[in-house]
Structures are given as C-alpha cells and as structure tokens.
Design a protein that fits this description.
Radius of gyration: 20 Å
Order of helices and strands: HHHHHHHHH
Number of helices: 9
Shape: elongated
Structural class: mainly alpha
Distance between the termini: 38 Å
Oligomer: single chain
Helix content: 40-55%
C-alpha cells in the first residue's frame, strides 16, 4: 500500500499539478478510504483515483518552475535584499518590510538585482484553473517593483517612475526565501511545500 500511495500522490502533484490541483485532495481521500476499509474493497477508491488522475488535465509547470528556481539558487549567490532578511540589523523602521501593508506587497522587489528579471513559472494553459493563474500572472507583470520601501510607504513611487517592471509570483518569493536559506544556512531542509505556503500568502487574488 505504501508504494501505491506514494506513486498516486507523486502523479497528482508532479504530472497533474496545476492542471487540476483539486485532484490531490481527492487522491488523499481515496487513499484514506482504502486504508480504512482494507483490501479487497480498498481497490475501489484507489481505482476511482487512478481514473481521475488518468483523465485529468496535465500540467508540469509547477514542478518545472520549482526545479528552475532551485537550480538558480544553488548556482548563484546574489545578496538577499536587506528588508527580506530574517533579522535585519541597523535598519530604519521605514526601510523594513511592511507586513501590515498588503497594498504594497505587489509593488516590492523580492528578487535580488542580479536575477530580478528571471522567469521561473511558465504557465501551461491546459485547464481553466491554470488559465486563471496565467491571467493573474500577466496582470501582476504590469506593476513596477521597487526596493525603496520608505518611498513606497510614503506613496511617492508611482508606476510612472518606479523601477523596471518585474513579475511577482509565489515562485519569486520562494526563490528569495530559498536564497536566504542558502546564504544563512538556516532552514535548508524545510520542505518546498512549506515555503510555497508562505509564498502564496503574499499573492494578490
């Protein structure tokens, strides 16, 4: 049962991915049901899960994006912006990250200057769900990014004179977090899924 469970969950995340992310929850439910009822009846929920996964829209965009971000983090070592460090030292309050200002989150530059134009996520529009993600991604690209948080907080930076427009997605935040981890030797073993949970919280609807 362990090998079946592992294989189904890997398929749900790696092969189905953002094409039909709800399939993950259904797969977990099917595995749980199979364990509860035991075999041979347990084959019924597992069979339903297999059919669900086999016929679901497929998208490897999430896996490919994470692999690209990890490769970049391991190959380069650009300095993490001071306002994104865990415990910024000697920084003025106005220059610190505005955790209480969601209206500014999408205007902030999250990636280091050296890789600020990198694109890690490439949408694969195989489903209505990922098409919506792609549309949100394109919408966010229209905003300029700035690392001058003090000016942002004072409302003195507008789209017209801000820094170069930079895309902002969960993967940009993931990349930044991962770079912090590599530079500080802290949380190197934290699961990617846990980093994504934090990253997704900074997204705009």
């Amino acid at each position: 049962m362990d090998s079946i469970e592992r294989r189904l969950l890997v398929i749900a995340y790696e092969d189905i991915g953002l094409g039909n992310p709800a399939a993950v929850a259904r797969t977990i439910s099917a595995i749980d049901a199979a364990k509860r009822v035991g075999f041979p009846e347990g084959m019924i929920p597992l069979g339903v899960a297999v059919i669900d996964l086999a016929l679901s829209p497929k998208s490897k965009s999430g896996e490919l994006a994470i692999q690209a971000a990890m490769a970049e983090a391991e190959a380069s070592d650009p300095p993490v912006p001071a306002y994104l460090r865990f415990t910024p030292v000697g920084m003025k309050e106005e220059d610190k990250y505005p955790y209480d200002r969601p209206d500014l989150w999408y205007k902030i530059q999250y990636l280091p200057d050296a890789i600020r134009t990198k694109r890690f996520y490439q949408p694969q529009a195989t489903s209505a769900y990922e098409k919506q993600l792609a549309a949100n991604y394109e919408s966010l690209k229209r905003y300029a990014r700035s690392k001058n948080l003090a000016e942002l907080k004072r409302g003195k930076i507008t789209r017209a004179h801000s820094s170069i427009p930079i895309p902002f997605t969960s993967l940009d935040v993931l990349m930044t977090i991962r770079l912090v981890c590599f530079r500080t030797c802290v949380l190197r073993t934290i699961p990617i899924s846990a980093l994504l949970i934090f990253a997704v919280q900074t997204e705009l609807p």
